[in-house]
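Posting this for the archive.
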Amino acid sequence: MMTPDAQPPHADRESHAGRSGRRETDLERLDRNLEEMTGELRVVVTGVQVLFAFLLIVPFNTGFAHVGDFERTVYFVTLVLAALAAVCMIAPSAEHRFLFRHDDKRHIVFNSNRVVIAGLVCLALAMCGCLLLVTTKLFGVSAGVVTAALGAVPFVLLWFVLPLRRLRLLDERDPTRRR
């Protein structure tokens, strides 16, 4: 049984149309997958950096001295989650630099995919943490919790439930489908 990171012999010379109708070798597909992920990360990394920068300057605002223990805890957890999101979103570039020209693109693509998904989880939680922090400061803890919970719904549905549901449906239709 082959793991997702294992590469079949002569994979760089095998050309097939596959279910997508594309005629590309396994290496061409990996190149395309890496390019697509890089394009997606250009959008996400900017948002993560802006969020993290915002969180870094918050404690230096004079009003931050007047927040309670709950808000400080929410802030700290949110800051850590934003930092973890940044680490996960930037990690594929770092790994690619270290493994550059070592013919390990399959590992880079599959591992980067997993790390980016972990980063998306951290990012969604950090954004909900921001909602909780700001709403709690403005309207109290109850309103903050309700707002963060309602804010989490689109993240959970659009970022995780719907894609995973689609993935499960595709796997049920064709259990031999390559990943």
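Residues 9-16 have pLDDT under 50 and may be disordered. Residues 68 and 110 are 43 Å apart (CA to CA).
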